[in-house]
Please model this.
Amino acid sequence: MNHYIISKGQKLSDIMPQIESNINLAKKFPGIGATYLEIHSPRPSILIEPNVPVIQGKCAKSDKDFKLFGVYEGVSVDKITDYLQEPYKYHKLMTTPESFPKIKQAANNTGIDLYSHFFCLMDESHLLVKDVDYRDNIVLPINDFFLFKQKALVSATPIAFSDPRFKEQDFRTVTIDADYNYKQDITLIHTNNTLQSIQDYLEQHNDSPICFFINLVDYSHSLIKELGIQNESSIFCAPKSVQKLKNELEFNNAYDEWKSDRMRKFNFFTSRFYNAFDLEVDYTPHVVMLTDIKASPYTILDINTDCVQIAGRFRNGLSTLTHIYTTDNNLPIMTTEEIRIHQFAQEHAYNTIRTLYNSAASETERNAFGEAMRSLPFNRMLYPDGKKNYFAIDNDTNDKLVTGSYHDSDRIISLYYACYMFRPSCTGYIYQFKDFSQLLLQGSKMTVKEKRKKMVAILSELKEPLSEFDLDFINEMRKVDSLLIEAYELLGLDSIMEMDYSQKRMNEAIILKRMQGNTTVKLIKNSFKTGYKYKCSQIVSELTRIFEMLNIHPHKSIRGETINHYFDTVPCRIGKKRERGYFLRAELL
Model:
């Protein structure tokens, strides 16, 4: 059969005795127990899972009759070998793609014919396409996969594969649909200011813990800081990101393994926890997915894969589901056909250079053509041995299509309405000064000069006379860079740009400006009069008193000649000791 129907409350094991070989099992929704079925099928199995948390979660729940053994970084070949030598009726191995070679070695150690002994299930198969651009080892087991006599792929969000080996081995798609309405309500919020939208969202959703799905740790951390929720938040991410958060950013509530007691009021998850992972809590949280396309392309969520997977993480349900997103009209829009034509042109260019490389007349020419080949875009779509990596080609196609969908909100809305999983309601908010939220969230990654340029650009949009809203906004910006705002208020934007945003030059100009301010000048005129002579010691003493009273701290020492900023003077000698001083001829200010 190529099509199965499941009823409410049923699992896959209720309608299918075991997963057939050479099929791509396409579930219409997550959580119907595909991996459970394989774990409990009466045959030895290797299940390839995308991420470690999935394996840890499944292993923690495995039973004695079908003892599951997890293989990932830190699990040695010797430990796998020991497990395979245990007298279990059916050995069940669950591994990451990167650790699959260790299973091959352990099977060889125990004399097991890997390809005929085990059934191989590639779970969350869409990630072969989705993740191969930044995680090329995810396709590490694929050549071995095709050597297994019994094998299958499974995903709730399948992507069509162009690798010809699927056709050569007569793979077919088997779909699992339902006879009940499983669509998930979702609110779509199109915004130009993600920070303000999240602040508004939090004001309306404070009755239950919130789970944010944002695939960028720096962004999540900046958001936590800006919202002032450090003590109420947890971040779940990869081990390297945990170390960065703890050691560099001094954020200790970061974990690479999920446990329910680590959940707090605000919980942030990266893509490590999007797929195949069960978040089992005794409450129904609010769930927020966030895409800030202008802040970082890493936050892009694919509606037909990422969003469907995220919605399926909560086995006990969720209170609300929301996708807050921005768009960018500068993003290129390409059809699948246009992308394929572009890829063909890249392949043709690569093959042309390769021909020149193979027919080079000298070693120098050969090296030059070799360098050119390695720099061509199509080189990313090849395995190390030079053969086509069809998953990388499919990734390029999918990535361009998904990125282009964030060109405008109409495209996003259309995708949601076309997706079998969702029942969307749409809204949108346009805020003033949209770039300020990006400045706050990206600030830690910007240089001081880049940040100041961005702030000047934002301030230049303000129109005189300033409104109360404008003044509040300027005070918010003061928290980011108080010196720049003081320079803006005292010197103006043109002066800041002329000084090339320099800390030292702005400081000097501000001090000089404050020294020449109305209050300062009035006090100095009160103490010094034209037509009189003053000793340098008197000038220094009185100016020091006035500056301290006004909290002015000049970058240079106060000297007798400082009086020249305020009066037209003539140097003179005063008294019997002929002390240095100045005769004040006229006021300058």
Notes: The mean pLDDT is 90. The first helix runs from residue 12 to 15. The longest strand covers residues 579-587. The two ends are 94 Å apart (CA to CA).
